[in-house]
Amino acid sequence: MEHMHRLADEIRETFEERGCRIAQAVQLDQAFSNTRRPQSSLGRALVLEAIQEATSRIGLGLKSVSGGGCDVVDFVDNSDRQFRVRKADLDPDTGYYDIIAGSDSILITDAEPDSLILSERWVLGYTVDDDGMIVDIFAAKVLGITEHSVPRLTLGPTTLLGAGSCGATPPGAGFKPADEDDLGDGLDFGDVADGGQPSAM
After folding, report:
1. Contact at 8 Å (CB) between 170 and 196?
2. 10 Å Cβ neighbour count for 49?
3. Residue 154 burial (10 A CB sphere; 0-12, 13-18, 19+)
4. How far is CA 38 from the centre of its chain?
5. Whole-model pTM?
6. Which among 176, 164, 177 has a CA at the least distance from the CA of 16?
7. pLDDT band per the 50, 70, 90 thresholds, residue 108
8. CB atoms within 10 A of CB 5
9. Pair 48, 173: CB distance under 8 Å
10. Which of 34-48, 67-81, 170-184 has the weakest average pLDDT?
11. Angle at 9 between CA 49 and CA 185, to 5 degrees
């Protein structure tokens, strides 16, 4: 997971240098602050640009996916891990990450049927504060999708990423479906293309 820790540091550095521009852009017009969607889209664009600039330098692969997203590819222990970049929400009371699954495309891999290399589906998730700045960056294996009317990702053990995290896990961090009446403007449906359980890695 060393490469992913380095990538998380690169994302944080980008936000430290340029993240303040998100708030500045949202303040340019009142229409941009009626919901969190413009702020979320700007933050996602900054995350993706940081990843695109850093992956080759770190030694990671990068693949574009439909909807303007991307998969970060890391080869670990004879496994081809494909990390879909996704924004998550964190329940402050339970510590559970929550990621809406817009489709089942995140479960699909491009591995050859007879390949000796195991292809795994993961998420590179991130959470933001009220100003759109990065809070948590984490990795977790995708185990499946819930059958709720608004499907969520079901995640395996979650590892916080970055030099300061040292593979730590937030207390109680894991997937727990949110109440469906609780979906508000904070959800970024533009980021939906596709929450997590803690463990150190």
Report:
1. no
2. 13
3. buried
4. 18
5. 0.79
6. 164
7. low
8. 21
9. no
10. 170-184
11. 60
At position 181, the amino acid (one-letter code) is D
Three-state secondary structure of the chain: CHHHHHHHHHHHHHHHHHCHHHHHHHCCCHHHHCCCHHHHHHHHHHHHHHHHHHHHHHCCEEEECHHHCEEEEEEECCEEEEEEEEECEECCCCCCEECECCCCHHHCCCCCCCCCCEEEEEEEEEEECCCCCEEEEEEEEEEEECCCCCCEEEEEEEEECCCCCCCCCCCCCCECCCCHHHCCCCCCHHHCCCCCEECCC
What is the C-alpha to C-alpha distance for residues 33 and 20, in angstroms, rounded to an integer?
15
The residue type found at 192 is: V
The label of the residue with tokens 């030099």 reads 163
Look up residue 51 and give its two tokens.
Answer: 């990843």
